[in-house]
Design brief:
337 residues, alpha+beta, 10-stranded antiparallel β-sheet, 3-stranded mixed β-sheet, carbohydrate metabolism, transferase, nucleotidyltransferase, zinc ion binding
Length: 337
């Protein structure tokens, strides 16, 4: 199928990971190379905030820091001052089956750097790797609670992407349920595995969608990308749980994430963005591990979600994935940055 800017006709593609449809309508956009954020993230001024080093007393309680007990910390994991779920409620003693639960759960903040003006993409790959390892340590702690079913790690960068603090940080939410999009993803991947005997994500790599490879990971624009210039970073090796990431691979993953964030900033005018780590439920059974494969989804905030999307669950993407991948492949990142 010849799909790109050479073919201006709209297409409807099946997203086989979440089992939904995406409409590609290039007539609604300019050339892919001209796509820029209309509301770029403001550069951080050299201000001070509760997340800055020396202001620890202004924050919610600390869970741990890296290095441990070091006043010159590099990363802090703290409780969210305004949590969506409460860790002080009684923990459910059984698997939820009804339509009402107490709001037990955990909502944490990962402060990625002690310095206000430093963003995640400014850090070196080993430093970003250390952030990933802080995620894995906290997920392993949360897994000790039998009632916690799923842990979502996510980052909101920029006010229009949902960030209430400009200091570089990400969040971890531990839920007593398996969210519907996770259930849909697992069901769709199970269907593929039942039909083919293979993990869908293990076979997702296609040359015309690839952005950049590394030894153990690769980045691509998915075939049915929900959003323009959406990027996935995928392990080449089969792994169901993100929190099994080891220190060596964390550094490599940090290098590839840094490259993607810098390419996105250069090409798309430093847009607000979100990233989400899609992993498996904590207490997965053995068969689930065969077809579940974690990955990171990065979504630059370039277009809004309107009535059609809210009403149908279908999304309209004005940029063909092949075109987005080609543009991102060709972005030249200065080595000095």
């Amino acid at each position: 199928m010849a799909s790109s800017s050479e073919n201006p006709n709209p297409e409807v593609r099946k997203d086989a990971v979440w089992n939904r449809w995406v409409i590609f309508s290039p007539a609604r956009a300019k050339r892919p190379s001209d796509f820029k954020s209309k509301s770029p993230t403001d550069p951080n001024p050299n201000q001070q905030c509760p997340f800055c080093i020396g202001h620890e007393h202004e924050c919610a309680p600390e869970i741990f820091r890296v290095p441990p007990r070091d006043p010159e910390w590099k990363i802090r994991v703290i409780q969210n001052l305004y949590p969506a779920l409460s860790r002080t409620l009684p923990e459910p003693q059984y698997a939820p089956s009804g339509s009402l639960l107490t709001g037990f759960g955990f909502h944490d903040v990962v402060i990625e750097t002690p310095v206000h003006s430093v963003q995640l993409c400014d850090l070196a790959p080993p430093e970003i790797g250390r952030v990933f390892l802080a995620y894995t340590e906290r997920i392993q702690q949360l897994a000790s609670h039998e009632s916690i079913q799923y842990v979502q790690v996510f980052k909101n960068h920029g006010a229009s992407a949902g960030a209430s603090m400009s200091h570089s940080h990400s969040q971890i939410m531990a839920l007593p349920i398996i969210p519907p999009s996770v259930s849909a993803r697992l069901a769709s991947m199970k269907d593929h595995f039942d039909q083919t005997g293979k993990c869908f994500i293990c076979e997702i790599q296609r040359e015309n969608l690839l952005i950049d490879p590394s030894t153990n990971f690769f980045s691509l624009v998915p075939f049915a990308a929900t959003f323009p210039f959406e990027i996935w970073i995928v392990p080449r090796y089969h792994s169901a749980h993100f929190h099994e990431l080891d220190a060596e691979k964390a550094v490599e993953l940090g290098g590839l994430l840094k490259l993607m964030l810098r390419k996105m900033a250069l090409q798309l005018n430093n847009p607000p963005f979100n990233y989400m780590i899609h992993t498996s439920p904590l207490h997965s059974n053995g068969s689930e591990l065969a077809y579940s494969h974690w990955f990171i989804q990065i979504v630059p905030q370039l277009i809004g979600i309107a009535g059609f999307e809210l009403g149908t669950g279908c999304y309209i993407n004005p940029v063909f994935p092949e075109d987005a991948a080609k543009v991102l492949r060709e972005v030249k990142v200065p080595e000095s940055g």
